[in-house]
Write a structure and sequence with these properties.
Length: 415
């Protein structure tokens, strides 16, 4: 169908809603991963974004809050953020969108009803319900070989829902090698405290084994704003001489998530992380020096977004993705997606959900798609203004690239 000024809004909205999604970074797990798989009202309401918002308001010590049972925490958060005041924040609105999409009455404020709704499904049924409603075809987990619970699960070769793909998370190895070493020793890797030739070979063997075991699509690390490789640190050595070698050999990109200040307020636990502006030169250095390696990059600070987008124009081994965490808000998604499109056309991945709780896929994608649709409508309208002919079929292909195909193409890219 040909698009014109009359039908463009309806057509693009419908195309975005119909397009299947590849959610390339989540913290979700399928059934079979026991307590790691999180879903349902209590989990959703005790999301660390909402904990941070609640603990700004209530006047009990942080430690008392964390000592409470999950259900009591959930009740307190709901009372504080949804009953005593209007739920205006993005994370609060997210809970409402999710409940609404599940067919629940958000104004009943009947938390018991919300809880019972989820418990009427098996984990498998609930996964199907959410993935189908959110139109997610595939999603990528965050698989941490240094997490004891997770390691145990992989030991028994779990039967994994084929929609859930793996990514090997290496924060511990990169940011705290001294401690990671002890876990690796227990796993049978002969790593010493100094990065000798043997130790580096053992680290590579570890990476290789875990990529194969988990069938990981990429390796990932999150790093602080002051991340640099121009230093003689174990982090720099492990990245350059171990991770990037294995990454190249196995054609498994390295995802860098840059700009997180872990535990700015340790009393807040997961909710205690913050962000800071990083140095783009580190990414430039990596893309240039390791030009046969592939890098996926997302940055946490708003201030880094423009220069990161420019850098992506210079290096095709750099794949930029998502509006991460504190950027995952409509005002910022709009700004970032607009200039990414202006500078890169269709060659990036606008979003990932970062969902920790299955139900969140519903709101994160609905909210994201709403903004991305508006940006696309504006940009396609500009093409109509100069007389460029647009068809539904062409836009379907474009949108498929943004939500799905660009990622697979990057994984398959040979440099
Ligand atoms: O490091 C990460 O992957 C972060 O996304 C998370 O650890 C963070 O806590 C989060 O949930 C952000 O959305
Ligand atoms: Zn994450």
């Amino acid at each position: 169908m040909k698009l014109n000024k009359e039908n463009i809004i309806k057509e693009i909205t419908s195309i975005v809603n119909k397009t299947e999604i590849y959610d390339i970074h989540t913290h979700l797990y399928p059934e079979g991963f026991g307590e790691l798989m999180l879903y349902g009202f209590d989990e959703m309401i005790t999301y660390h974004y909402l904990i941070a918002e609640t603990l700004r308001i209530i006047d009990i010590p942080y430690s008392d809050f964390f000592a409470m049972k999950k259900r009591d925490q959930a009740d307190l958060i709901y009372k504080t953020l949804f009953i005593e005041r209007s739920p205006l924040s993005e994370s609060c609105r997210g809970v409402l969108t999710t409940l609404k999409m599940l067919g629940l009455n958000i104004n009943s404020q009947n938390t018991q009803e919300y809880r019972e709704f989820t418990s009427s499904f098996s984990a498998k049924e609930y996964t199907n319900l959410v993935l189908e409603k959110a139109n997610i075809k595939k999603l990528v987990m965050t698989n941490d070989p240094f997490n004891n619970i997770e390691r145990k699960i992989w030991k028994y070769k779990p039967d994994i829902d084929s929609r859930f793909k793996s990514a090997l998370r290496l924060d511990f190895l990169i940011n705290d090698f001294k401690s990671a070493r002890h876990t690796m020793l227990r796993m049978g890797y002969n790593v010493t405290s100094t990065l000798t030739g043997l130790t580096k070979r053992e680290i590579k063997r570890f990476l290789h084994d875990w990529i194969v075991k988990t069938n990981s699509l990429y390796m990932a690390i999150s790093v602080p704003p002051d991340f640099t490789l121009l230093e003689n640190s174990s982090r720099a050595i492990i990245i350059e001489e171990c991770v990037l070698e294995v990454s190249y050999e196995l054609n498994v990109p390295l995802a860098l998530m840059i700009g997180v200040k872990r535990q700015t307020n340790p009393e807040l636990d997961l909710a205690g992380d913050s962000c800071g502006k990083a140095n783009i030169e580190t990414i430039e250095y990596l893309c240039k020096k390791f030009n046969k390696n592939k890098f996926m990059v997302t940055m946490l600070s708003r201030e880094n977004q423009h220069e990161l987008t420019i850098l992506a124009r210079k290096y095709r081994n750099l794949f930029i993705f998502g509006c991460w965490w504190f950027l995952n808000n409509p005002s910022l998604i709009k700004e970032i997606t607009t200039f990414r499109t202006e500078l890169l056309g269709l060659s990036y991945m606008p979003q990932h959900s970062d969902a920790r709780i299955l139900d969140q896929l519903l709101y994160k994608w609905t909210h994201n798609k709403d903004i991305i649709t508006k940006v696309l409508i504006k940009k396609y309208n500009k093409l109509l203004d100069v007389g460029w002919e647009l068809t539904t079929e062409k836009i379907e292909e474009d949108v498929n690239r943004l939500f799905y195909k660009n990622f697979e193409d990057f994984l398959n890219l040979k440099l």
